[in-house]
Amino acid sequence: MSNKVIYIFLIAFSILAFSNTVKAEELRNGYKYPGYIIQNNYDTIYGYIKYSDVVRSQNKCEFYKNENDKKPFKKYKPKELKGYLISDVLYKTINYSGGLMSKPLRFLKVNTEGELTIFTFWEEGSIPYNREREQTAVYFKWHDKKNVKPITNSKFAFSFAKKMSAYVADNKELSKKVRNKEKGYNLLHLYDIINEYNEWYAAKNN
User: Fold this and answer.
1) CA 90 to CA 75: how far, in whole Å?
2) Mean pLDDT of 81-94
3) What one-character-per-residue DSSP string does 120-188 give?
4) How far is 50 from 31, CA to CA, in rounded Å?
5) Mean pLDDT within 121-125
6) Do the Cβ atoms of 97 and 106 come closer than 8 Å?
7) Contact call for residues 202 and 115 (beta carbons, < 8 A)
């Protein structure tokens, strides 16, 4: 497979991954929004969260009990929460911070929720003034002991049918459709495949 074809594949993945996102960028810096935090013991506490920007939102959660409070009740780090909701934007904590190392925890914005969750990760650090901050689609299966690390689009750049069918192998019927390249089960239907997997998993575990 040529580099040009791989590039086209990755662009297609990016379009799929971000076409349905709730835009966290539409939240206004410095404003408080209603929401909640999910503590590590899974207790949910409702209140208000101040929005900073897409990068700071990955690294901290500034929580207020009341909208008019001048000071935050607490500024949480990813290791202190399972996640949080600000307005209608949900963040969950996983071991992904970009690059080759996945260990550092981050709050990642949830794009598609389910057993196989799709997250959005925003490039961290300083960037040149003349380009936009890059976004990465991150995929994670919560209870799969064979796939314990988050993955990105590069996982599927070569041999989509083979790799995607292996990724959803616990759903044997779906895996077979992808492996056999049946109509509607190729790269361009990635979201549909993931949604079908999540529906299957939810029904199985109700």
Assistant:
1) 17
2) 97
3) EEEPPS---TTSPPPEEEEEEETT-TT--S-EEGGGGSS-HHHHHHHHTTTSHHHHHHHHTT-TT-SGG
4) 5
5) 91
6) yes
7) yes
